[in-house]
Structures are given as structure tokens and as C-alpha cells.
Amino acid sequence: MSANNERLRRARKVRMKIRKLGTDRLCVHRTPRHMYAQVTTADGSKVIATASTLDKELRQGATGNVEAAKKVGQLIAERAKAAGVESVAFDRSGYRYHGRVQALADAAREAGLQF
Q1: Under CATH, to which class is 3-111 assigned?
Q2: SUPFAM superfamilies in the record, alphabetically (predicted)?
Q3: What b/e sequence results for 59-89 when a residue is b if at least 16 CB atoms lie within 10 Å of its CB, and e otherwise?
Q4: Would you list the domain boundaries of the chain?
Q5: What pTM did the predictor assign?
Q6: How far is the C-alpha of 63 from the C-alpha of 47, rounded, in Å?
Q7: In what order do the strands lie in the sheet with 89-91?
Q8: Is 55:75 a contact under the CB 8 Å cutoff?
Q9: Angle at CA 101, nearest 5°, toward 24 and 45?
Q10: Each residue of 68-103: pLDDT tens digit?
Q11: How far from chain centre, in Å, is Cα 9?
């Protein structure tokens, strides 16, 4: 079994648990070059807010490091709060909670999003 398949299996387990909780979900996806985040409804049927290093205001400079992930975390928290979402469940998509994933989560918490 490849590493990506294992990551997707872990992600599926977490998503099922979040669906049972019935809370909105903050999903994270990372590539070597970019970070993506979106807030979706509990069942995943509707996207409430999105942010990524592809946004015009975040594109300057490096996009694949911890600093860029912090900026994405702040931006997703601002957009989620503007859409009326105060509390979310953190879906790290099977990625380990360190580095850029942790930086994004910490920045979103500091910007006022409840996990």
C-alpha cells in the first residue's frame, strides 16, 4: 500500500467521525508548492469559505513554507467568520500534524476560529 493510499484511508476515518459530530469542517490540502484550506458543511455538500496560496494577496514570495501556511490560516479564519462560522472540526486530510499543517491550524485559532 502506498503512502498516499494510507493517508487517504486515515482521512476517510476522520471525515466519517466529523460527519457524525455534525460540525462544519476545516479541510487542509498541501502540495510541495502550495497550501489550500476550505471550510465545508459537515456532510461536505457545500463549501462555505476557501483560502490558498494561489489567492492574489498571498501569491507574492514563497508559497510552500510555514509563513505562507500561517497567512492561509489567518485568511481562512477571517473568511469563515465573515460567513458566520465560529466553530469547526479540523480535518488534516491524513497529513501529520506538524510543520505547515500545524502552522495553518495555529494561525486559524489565533484569528478567532474555534476548533
Answers
A1: alpha beta
A2: Translational machinery components (SSF53137)
A3: eeeebeeeebbbbbbbbbbbbbeeeebeebb
A4: 3-111
A5: 0.92
A6: 23
A7: 47-52, 35-40, 25-30, 89-91
A8: yes
A9: 25
A10: 999 999 999 999 999 999 999 999 999 999 999 999
A11: 18
